[in-house]
Amino acid sequence: MIRKLNRIFQDYMREKRLKFGRYIWDRKKKKEEIIEGNFIEKNSINSILFLRYDGKIGDMVINTIMFREIKRQYPNIKIGVIARGAAKEIIKNNPYIDKIYNYEKNSKKIKELSKEISKEKYDLLIDFSEMLRVNQMLLINLCKARYNMGLNREDWKLFDKSYSFPEGEFHIVEVYKKVLEEIGIKKPNLDYDLHFTEKEKQDVEVLLNKFKGQEIFVLNPFAASKHRDFNREKIQGIIDIILKKENRIVFLIGEKKRGEEIENIIKKYSENVFFAKLGSIMETAFLIKKADFIITPDTSIVHIAAAFKKKMIAIYREDLDIEVKNKNLWSPNYDEAIQVFSRDLDVKKGEEPNINKFKLKEIDKIINN
Fold first, then answer.
1. Which helix (H) or strand (E) holds 125?
2. How many other CB atoms are there within 10 angstroms of residue 361's CB atom?
3. CATH 3.40.50.2000 occupies which residues in the chain?
């Protein structure tokens, strides 16, 4: 009861903070008129700043479409990206990005960052947030770009240009395509775009060198939410299914903090099952590129695998309205990937469904046929 009351109070206060924040920051000193036609060309856009402060790896993977397609058509446009956490790793080697800015959730740091950015005088700022928090309003206001563009911001003074979601069911790439078309990039290539250093490639090649001629499976048992983590029974069940056939190697991937948990799980197997102790998300991405088959409940890994059109089983929940939407919005979106659904028929109202309600027989049928 106390928890519920606290959640209600926090939701109430969040709404008040957002209203007050908008009152302070939803303003722009200089609103420039937009010349219709090709937005980039007609409005002399020479620099674009992308706001990706959410730290989401999967979103950043998809965003790589935009960096490449803009630079291919307009190679002299400067592209900057505000990012944080592991999402920065996704773009650190990207040849289409000129500058990466580090975002920290701290008002003082945000003001310092926006002051630095404002001196660079970006022509266009593009934000991807569905809901703007106060610190994000502050950042956009103080960056002082000539034009600000955001999602469903028609009634905001801070924004000059707005875009909306496509109608009906759609995949997330359609949003990025729509934004590109809004600014003047027609018929973009929608393939994701990841780049690796020679060291990242070499470290993974060394790991795989002794398994030449064997089929490499990458199993990612964990996701951002504990409700989407595979349990031990399901992890070992999937491994057993993979090892039904010879010449197969299984690499489990996960954050270092899950290392002990993974090691305990694979103790059962004397050979052919390993914890891939890799140094970064990009080394993990290169392992996925080199692998033959991927299994994951996590959309970050789904989108990394999608960059290379790998054979994959992506496991989703199909119990809540939002999950039904997610299975389309965040699907792998290519023929070599198969979605398997967990249906938690025992979930109570207000509780999160358990992803471990999928059937191992379904996994077996896909992998061993």
1. strand 124-127
2. 10
3. 13-183, 198-368
Distances (CA, A) of 164 to 56, 70, 169, 253, 302: 21, 20, 13, 36, 25
- Helix H or strand E segment including 218: strand 215-219
Q: What is the pLDDT of residues 145-176, one digit of tens each?
A: 999 999 999 999 999 999 999 988 899 999 99
CATH of 13-183, one of 3.90.1150.10, 3.40.50.2000, 3.40.718.10, 3.40.50.150: 3.40.50.2000
Mean of the per-residue pLDDT values of the chain: 91
- CA dihedral for 111, 114, 118, 120, sign (positive or negative): positive
Question: How does pLDDT run across 37-64, given as a tens digit for each residue?
Answer: 999 999 999 999 999 999 999 999 999 9
Distance in angstroms (rounded) separating the CA atoms of residues 357 and 353: 9
On whether the 198-368 domain is CATH 3.40.50.2000, my answer is yes
**Which of 78, 153, 158 lies closest to 117 in space, CA to CA?**
78
Six token digits for residue 156 = 């905001």
pLDDT at 22 over 90: no
DSSP 23-37: HHH---S--PPPPSS
